[in-house]
Amino acid sequence: MKHTRRLKWISSIPCEDVRKPNYKVKARAFTGIEIATLANFADAAAVLLIRTAASTGVRFGELAGLEWDRVDLDVTAFT
To answer: Cα(32)–Cα(38) distance, rounded to whole angstroms?
Structure first.
C-alpha cells in the first residue's frame, strides 16, 4: 500500500488508521483425554476427522479440503 501511495496510484491508504486490538488469546492443544472424549461422542465420519486432525496437526480448512484418493497410506513411503 505504501508503494502505491508513493507512486500516486491511490490518494490515501485506506487502512492506515486501523490499529491492532489490545487483547491476547491463549490457545492450547487438546489433551489426549479430551480428544478421546470428543471421539466417543462423535459419529464414525467425525471420529475419522478428529483422529486425523489430532495425529497430523492439520488445520480444519486443510482437513476439509483433503481428497482421500490423494492420500498415500503406504507405510514404506515413510521409511
So the answer is: 10
Tens of pLDDT, residues 38-77: 999 999 889 988 998 998 888 889 888 888 787 777 766 5
Grid cell listed for 15: 487502512
Give the burial string for 24-38 (b: 16+ CB within 10 Å, else e).
eeeeeeeeeeebeee
Exposed, middle or buried by CB within 10 Å (0-12, 13-18, 19+), for 40? exposed
Going from N- to C-terminal start, the domains of the chain cover: 31-79
Amino acid at 37: T
Region at 21 (left for phi over 0; alpha for psi -120 to 50; beta for the rest)? beta
